[in-house]
Design goal:
This protein has four helices and seven strands, in the order βααβββαβαββ. A hairpin with an 8-residue loop joins strand 3 and strand 4.
């Protein structure tokens, strides 16, 4: 698997991954009714941020975006988001994207990386992030309306460099 910078031609394969994840409404706080244009504006980062794709042969199997979490006095902390195609889950794509994002942030001198809204019901992601050095620093109870579980907490997770 290769992780490389997103190029415009990738959107035809990235857009469906985003649509699939967002429409499921069980992990991301994005509006499940968002349009492709809205998804593009949310997902494709302008520099100094970056959007990447994970490619297995000629298939895009995942994508990530990373950048500064907050401007001004908070600009020393990075953030990132990851989406993996349903058929590629459980094969290490998410872990590879997470390692890439952490290396990207360290290489740019960030003090750490913060995830602002990880659904506590997304156990696979929470455990993946913990394995990569993140800890839950707080949970907002009932902040995420899961389609099957009802209201669950949203974790704020942090990895100090």
């Amino acid at each position: 698997m290769l992780i490389r910078e997103f190029v415009e031609a990738d959107w035809a394969r990235v857009g469906p991954i985003i649509e699939e994840v967002v429409r499921a409404a069980d992990t991301f706080t994005y509006d499940p009714a968002m349009t492709a244009e809205q998804a593009y504006r949310v997902w494709i980062e302008d520099p100094p941020g970056q959007t990447v794709v994970a490619v297995d042969g000629d298939r895009v199997v995942g994508t990530a975006k990373m950048g500064t979490n907050r401007p001004g006095p908070g600009s020393h902390v990075a953030t990132a988001s990851f989406m993996v195609a349903a058929g590629a889950r459980g094969r290490g794509v998410g872990g590879a994207l997470c390692r890439y994002a952490l290396d990207w942030a360290r290489d740019r001198g960030y003090a750490g990386m913060q995830f602002n809204a990880v659904a506590e019901s997304n156990h696979r992601a929470v455990e993946l992030y913990r394995r990569h050095g993140f800890e839950v620093v707080g949970t907002v109870p009932g902040a995420f309306a899961h389609p099957r579980l009802g209201r669950v907490g949203l974790h704020v997770m942090y990895c100090r460099f």
